[in-house]
Amino acid sequence: MELRQLAYFVAVCEELSFSRAAARCFISQSAISHQIARLERDLGVPLFERSTRAVVPTDATTRLLPLAKQMLSLESAIRAAVRASGPRIRLAANMSFASRSLSAIAAARAAHPDAEIEFVIKPFRQRITAVADGDCDLALIRGRVDQPGLMVEQLWVEDLVIATSSNHPLATRDTVTLNDLSSYPLLLPPEQEQVLLHNIIRSAFADLPVGPTFGPPIPPDHTATMELINRPEAWTVLYAQSPTEGLVVLQLAEHRLRIPVCAVLRDDTRRSPILTTLLTTLHSS
C-alpha cells in the first residue's frame, strides 16, 4: 500500500468518478484505475462497484476512508514538521487561481529576493487540511469556511460566468438578465456536490418575481460543458470558462452572480513581511 494510492482512493471517494478523480490528481484515468485496482488487491477487498453510469463505494470503503484521510493528514504534518526554517511561504490553490497567484508571487519575490514561495495545486478539502495542519501557510478558496483554528480574509470578488450552447435561443444577445434565463433549464451538479453554487443561485433569484427552471442534475461522470452541447436550450453557471468550441459566454446585465475569493490562514499565523506582501498584492491585483 502506498500513500499515493490512498490519495487516489480519497479522490475517487469524493468525486465518485474515476475520470474526475484522475483530472483532480493530474494523472490519466487508466493510471488511477490501475492504482485503485492494486490497492484492492493489496487489501483483498473491492472498494468500488463500477458501472457505466456510477461509481458506488463498498462497505469496506466506508471503513477505510476516514483512516486514509488520517494517513494523508499525518503525511502533511510530517512534511510541515521537517520543513527547513527560513523565508518560505506555501500557497495552496487550484489552477483557476494560477494567473493571479503567480503574478502576486512574482511581486512578493521582487520585494523579498531571498524569499521562497511555492504554488501548490490541491483540491478544496486538501487545501483547508494543508493550512490546518501547517503544511501550507495560506490557501485560496471561493466562498468561505468556518473551522476552528482558521481565519478567512476576503481578497476580491468574482463575477460568475453564464455559459450556453452557441445554438441557444439567447446566444446572439449582447447581454441577458436572470429573468431572460429563468424559463430555460439550468444545469448544475447536485446540491450536495456544489452547495456554494446552489446558494449563490438561490440568493440571486431571491428578490426576482421568477425563479430558475432547474434541469436534471449533471451526473457525477459528466461535465457541464458537454451537457450544454447535448442540451442546447439549457444554460449553466461556471466559476471560470476558457474558450470552448460550441459554447458561448453571456454577459449578465446585472451583477447578481458574485462570489468572494478568500485567503484561509491559521489563527496563529505570524504575518511575516513576505506573507504580508503576498496578501497585499493579491488584494490589489
How would you characterize this protein structure?
- Keywords: Activator, DNA-binding, Transcription, Transcription regulation.
- The chain has 285 residues and is an alpha/beta fold.
- The chain has three domains: 3-80, Arc Repressor Mutant, subunit A, CATH 1.10.10; 87-149 and 267-284, D-Maltodextrin-Binding Protein, domain 2, CATH 3.40.190.10; 156-258, Periplasmic binding protein-like II (D-Maltodextrin-Binding Protein, domain 2), CATH 3.40.190.10.
- The protein has helices spanning 3-15, 18-25, 29-43, 59-82, 98-111, 124-133, 178-181, 195-205, 224-230, 273-284; strands at residues 48-50, 55-57, 88-93, 116-121, 138-142, 150-159, 161-165, 175-176, 185-186, 213-214, 235-238, 247-252, 258-266.
- It has a five-stranded mixed sheet, with helices on both faces. A four-stranded mixed sheet has the order 8-12-7-11.
